[in-house]
């Protein structure tokens, strides 16, 4: 008996998330609805799809087969959507873009505004996320990512290097990093390189705050909690912060703009990547922590015809 697509989506979500609660949240339904639907699917198929355990839901052989079918169906639907999007003849319609929160607020939003004035027929759906969304499933059409190792399966353009440097409060005297309190990213970020930097240049016992995301890092140093490595893009724009030393090359990440190869010839994807990419490239000195060649560079870029 043929099963509706929603049944496959539910089973795949349970397998991906290891349980009903997270799967229900992902699909926008409540736990009891997900439980009833799974029970009905198993009854209709005459077999169990998952073994229930205290650690979560583990797919049975039948469940694994249904998940594999769901993934194949999802890829086929995504490929169809990419092909349709790539055949559009006019740069109009919705474009989903994903980028980390810091880049959206400190760099991209003015450029998005300029792009919208340039291409009013394209409507942006911006997904602010520090996670790498799956472009093959069209979780996004274009991704702006800080990465030194982007997926070789994606088509893209390297835009700039994102510089990092050590900063402290501007109203405080020059501090000896060995005797200063520190704010840093946690071990889970950047393979622990931020904590290693503190161990080399400061005192790990004086780490007063750790964060698992760049969001909030500048605010923590600005609040006086401690000195810390910050992205130059964000920190140099804050008068309350001052740089201690030069930019640190080991912490520089490449900034990429990426899309799925099937979308590289889409007129709206191409229009967005060309415009936004050129605007970001013009701001390379600021992104790398170097002074802009002229103070009005940002305004000149964003006011382009």
- What is the H/E string? HHHEEHEHEEEEEHEHEHEEHHH
Number of domains: 3
Number of helices: 11
The name of the CATH architecture of the largest domain is: 3-Layer(aba) Sandwich
Query: Mind describing the biggest β-sheet?
Result: 5 strands, mixed
Beta content = 15-25%
Helix content percent band: 40-55%
Lateral strand order in the biggest sheet: 4-3-5-12-6
Radius of gyration: 24 Å
By CATH, the superfamily of the largest domain comes out as Periplasmic binding protein-like II
Structural class: alpha/beta
Cα-to-Cα separation, first versus last residue: 58 Å
In the CATH hierarchy, the third-tier topology of the largest domain is known as D-Maltodextrin-Binding Protein, domain 2
Question: Describe it for me?
Answer:
The protein has eleven helices and twelve strands. It is an alpha/beta fold and 305 residues long. The protein folds into three domains: 5-85, Winged helix-like DNA-binding domain superfamily/Winged helix DNA-binding domain (Arc Repressor Mutant, subunit A); 94-160 and 253-302, Periplasmic binding protein-like II (D-Maltodextrin-Binding Protein, domain 2), CATH 3.40.190.10; 164-249, Periplasmic binding protein-like II (D-Maltodextrin-Binding Protein, domain 2). A five-stranded mixed beta sheet has the order 4-3-5-12-6. Strands 10-7-11 form a three-stranded antiparallel beta sheet. It starts with a helix and ends with a helix.
Summarize the structure.
This is HTH-type transcriptional regulator DmlR. With 305 residues, the chain is α/β, with parallel strands linked by helices.
């Amino acid at each position: 008996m043929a099963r509706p697509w929603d049944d496959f989506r539910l089973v795949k979500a349970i397998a991906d998330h290891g349980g009903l609660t997270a799967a229900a949240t992902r699909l926008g339904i409540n736990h009891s609805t997900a439980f009833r639907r799974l029970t009905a699917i198993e009854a209709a198929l005459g077999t169990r799809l998952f073994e229930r355990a205290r650690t979560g839901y583990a797919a049975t052989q039948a469940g694994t087969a249904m998940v594999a079918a769901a993934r194949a169906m999802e890829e086929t639907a995504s490929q169809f959507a990419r092909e349709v999007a790539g055949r559009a003849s006019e740069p109009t319609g919705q474009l989903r873009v994903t980028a980390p929160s810091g880049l959206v607020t400190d760099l991209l939003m003015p450029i998005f505004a300029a792009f919208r004035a340039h291409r009013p027929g394209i409507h942006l759906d911006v997904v602010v996320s520090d996670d790498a969304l799956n472009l093959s499933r069209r979780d996004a059409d274009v991704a702006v990512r800080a990465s030194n190792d982007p997926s070789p399966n994606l088509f893209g353009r390297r835009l700039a290097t994102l510089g990092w440097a050590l900063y402290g409060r501007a109203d405080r005297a020059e501090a000896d990093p060995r005797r200063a309190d520190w704010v840093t990213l946690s071990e889970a970020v950047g393979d622990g390189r931020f904590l290693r930097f503190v161990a080399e240049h400061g005192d790990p016992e004086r780490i007063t705050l750790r964060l698992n995301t760049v969001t909030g890092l500048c605010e923590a140093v600005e609040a006086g909690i401690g000195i810390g490595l910050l992205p130059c893009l964000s920190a140099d724009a804050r008068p309350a912060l001052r740089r201690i030393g030069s930019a640190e090359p080991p912490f520089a990440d490449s900034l990429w703009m990426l899309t799925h190869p099937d979308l590289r010839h889409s007129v709206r994807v191409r229009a967005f990547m060309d415009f936004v990419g050129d605007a970001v490239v013009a701001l390379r000195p600021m992104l790398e922590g170097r002074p802009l060649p002229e103070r009005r560079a940002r305004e000149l870029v964003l006011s382009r015809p």
